[in-house]
Each structure stands twice: as structure tokens, then as C-alpha cells.
From TrEMBL:
Subcellular localization, as worded in the UniProt entry: Membrane
One GO MF term attached to the UniProt entry: voltage-gated monoatomic anion channel activity
Family: Belongs to the eukaryotic mitochondrial porin (TC 1.B.8.1) family.
PANTHER family: MITOCHONDRIAL OUTER MEMBRANE PROTEIN PORIN 4, VOLTAGE-DEPENDENT ANION-SELECTIVE CHANNEL
Coiled-coil ranges from the UniProt annotation: none
Domain of life: Eukaryota
Keywords annotated in UniProt: Ion transport, Membrane, Porin, Transmembrane, Transmembrane beta strand, Transport
GO CC annotation, single: mitochondrial outer membrane
Known function: Forms a channel through the cell membrane that allows diffusion of small hydrophilic molecules. The channel adopts an open conformation at low or zero membrane potential and a closed conformation at potentials above 30-40 mV. The open state has a weak anion selectivity whereas the closed state is cation-selective.
Pfam families linked: Porin_3 (PF01459)
CDD domains: Porin3_VDAC
Organism field: Salvia splendens (Scarlet sage)
Protein name per Swiss-Prot or TrEMBL: Voltage-dependent anion-selective channel protein
Cleaved signal peptide residues: none
Length: 275
């Protein structure tokens, strides 16, 4: 299965993660307690300005079944049950309480030359989503379609192609119902120092507007990494992450808008503990 194509949702993910992942401008704390018995526990809290939100989630794993349950500060309960139907095929049922219309069935299929994901709402007028990618671990081409049965209309249709090697990754996506082209590229400059650069460019066909972002990541030492990002809208961002103990991370992020005078940069601190 490892030689098959990535799912469509992961086309362009390598550059996207370098440019966006770990950038957080709030105060966030998470505690992850795994268990050898198959039962895991995670608590997360985020402070956004004067508002604090949090959730507690548990995960139970057996040979073929995974059960995830999450409860947030607003008493919303999210449940997801995933079952290995056959080799390469998984089915998942998820629902939220008290939202009785949130039920959903997902089916994921992975093959040596294909990756197919489908989702359908478990209600009288469901939304149907299907995505597929074919190829190999080096090159994949795919697309996704969303259809709303209540209005008999397409909610989305996107397509993309990706090229992946150990030292680089490139992708081109046609999104927003064919109205936007997004191209991304990530390249390992120095494997010894973990230095990697990435770029993403977006072109809107209807308005002929272009936007881009450039980013990099560099390992200062075996436990510390530094990321930088620059966007055409004048925003500059940095993120520093340190593994102060095994699998426990402290991340500091900041973003400054050069086009807004006399404005302090946005800063955020994230602490993730895993005993």
C-alpha cells in the first residue's frame, strides 16, 4: 500500500504544511496520554483573546476498530467509529450530539494504484462527496466532487496532479469549481541541516489576481527548528519549535503585517505535552 498514490486531499500537502502548519497566534495547551491497553486521552485548551475554549477526547483501539469521542466546553459530543472492513478498506460512521443531522458515513479505499474516499450524510437530503487519485507514490492525478441532493447542485469540483520524490514535491490544483489555479513546490536544500524551502502561487482566473507565499524550515539542532514565511500581502511570519522532552513540543509563532503601521505583531504560544 505504501507504493500507491496519496489521497486527493494530500496533493500539495508537503508545501502546504511547510507554509501553514505550526503557525498559531493564540495560546494553546494540549495534553496527550496514550495507553498500552488501547485507550488514549487528550485534553486541549485554546485561549483566543478573552475567550477560552477546550475539549476532552478519548480514543479506543482494538484490532480492527477505532472509537473516538470528543466533548467540548459547549457540551457538544462528537463520536466517530472506524472499522477495517477488508485490507485497504475502512468505513467510518460519525455523528455529533445534539446536531441530529450531522451523521455521516465515510469509506476509504487504498490500492497500489488508486486511493478513493467517499462520504455521504446520513439524513433525508444528504450531501455526497467523492474523491479519487490514481498513479503511484511518485506521481498522482485525481479529483473530487461534492453534490447536494437537496438542491441537486454541485457544491465543489476540483482536480489536481502531484509529483513526489524524497527531495522535492510539486503539485498543481484547479479548485473553486475551476475558477482558481494553485501551484506549489517544496524542495530539500540541505538534508543534513533539514533545510527545506517551499512556494505556493494562486491565480484566480475570473479576476486575474495573483497571490503567493514563500517559506522555509531549518533545523538549528536535533531538537529545535525554525520556520519563516513571507506573503505578497506584506505579512512576515516566524515559528520556532523545540522538543524539550521526547514528543513534547513548545512552539512560539509571530506574524507582522508590514502594510499596517503602528500595529504590534500577532504572537502565539503552543505547548503540547505527551508523558
Amino acid at each position: 500500500m505504501g507504493n500507491g498514490p496519496v489521497p486527493f486531499s494530500e496533493i500539495g500537502k508537503r508545501a502546504r504544511d511547510l507554509l501553514t502548519r505550526d503557525y498559531n497566534y493564540d495560546q494553546k495547551f494540549s495534553l496527550d496520554i496514550p495507553s498500552s491497553t488501547g485507550m488514549g486521552f487528550t485534553a486541549t485548551g485554546v485561549k483566543k483573546g478573552q475567550i477560552f475554549v477546550g475539549d476532552i477526547s478519548t480514543q479506543y483501539r482494538s484490532e480492527k476498530t477505532i472509537v473516538d469521542v470528543k466533548v467540548d466546553t459547549y457540551s457538544n459530543v462528537s463520536t466517530k467509529v472506524t472499522y477495517d472492513v477488508a485490507p485497504g478498506t475502512k468505513a467510518a460512521v460519525s455523528f455529533n450530539v445534539p446536531d441530529h443531522k450531522s451523521g455521516k458515513l465515510d469509506v476509504h479505499y487504498l490500492h497500489h494504484h488508486a486511493a478513493i474516499n467517499s462520504s455521504i450524510g446520513l439524513n433525508p437530503s444528504p450531501q455526497l462527496e467523492v474523491s479519487a487519485a490514481i498513479g503511484s507514490k511518485d506521481i498522482a492525478i485525481g479529483g473530487e466532487v461534492g453534490f447536494d441532493t437537496s438542491s441537486s447542485s454541485f457544491t465543489k469540483y476540483n482536480a489536481g496532479i502531484s509529483f513526489n520524490k524524497q527531495d522535492f514535491s510539486a503539485a498543481v490544483l484547479l479548485i473553486d469549481k475551476g475558477q482558481t489555479v494553485k501551484a506549489s513546490y517544496a524542495h530539500v536544500v540541505n538534508p543534513l541541516t533539514g533545510t527545506e524551502v517551499a512556494a505556493e502561487m494562486t491565480h484566480r482566473l475570473s479576476s486575474f489576481q495573483n497571490s503567493f507565499s514563500l517559506g522555509s524550515v531549518h533545523k538549528i539542532d536535533s531538537l529545535t527548528s525554525m520556520k519563516t514565511r513571507f506573503s505578497d500581502d506584506g505579512k512576515i511570519a516566524i515559528s520556532s519549535q523545540r522538543e524539550w522532552r521526547p514528543k513534547s513540543l513548545v512552539t512560539f509563532s509571530a506574524e507582522y503585517d508590514t502594510k499596517v503601521i503602528n500595529t504590534a505583531p500577532k504572537c502565539g504560544l503552543s505547548i503540547a505535552l505527551k508523558p
